[in-house]
Amino acid sequence: MPSKQPEFIIGRHPAVAALKSDQEINKVFIQKDLRSDAIASVIKLARERRLVISMVPKTKLDQMTNNENHQGVALAVAAYKYATIDDLFARATERDEAPFFLILDELADPHNLGSILRTADAAGVHGIIIPRRRSVGLTSVVAKTSTGAIEHVPVARVTNLVQTAKELQARGLWLFGTDMQGTDYRRWDAKGPVALVIGNEGKGISSLLKKTCDEMLTIPMIGHVQSLNASVAASLLIYQGFNSRHPLG
Q: How much is the pTM?
């Protein structure tokens, strides 16, 4: 279930994206004496939806958002709704495409999840699967980092990733994990129904989930640093999937 704690969508672009979507919004907070076209757009959209707009001092916004960079805007929202696995398949069917899912194994950093959501939306990923425990959920920081993509990419939260992975395989998907030892990701052909598994920032993919994968992919590195940020690695792999599914010419 989504978090029951109060959540805020913060930042001008995420706020506009939320106001244009069917996201349930309880109240709009705008910093007093702040004038810009972006702020005017937020106010216009909020009035069109007949939402309560509260003009507050910057200190109030700082307090509500734990001193995040709110850019003078915060939307009090109902907790984000999580999708189901069937919702993800339905999204692929609606687009008349073979499923392309991401499985994130205990990702801990909300900024990484937000960035991955942004890339997933850009590359046409049909949905993301995260575990219920030991993983970042759909928080306000994730929403802001995603710059609105959280409104467009469904996220399913499941109790057991290994069981879910086996269910996906039973439904026709091939699972590709990431590891230091594996096939060069540039050779990955993501045509057909696939799920890409991205591991935890420190530990990588858990051993049981790794054993469930059909094939492991690796990103070759010739520099001194032998690891990449999780969202950067995910972006490279997601776009290799995009390249093979949407080839030039």
A: 0.73
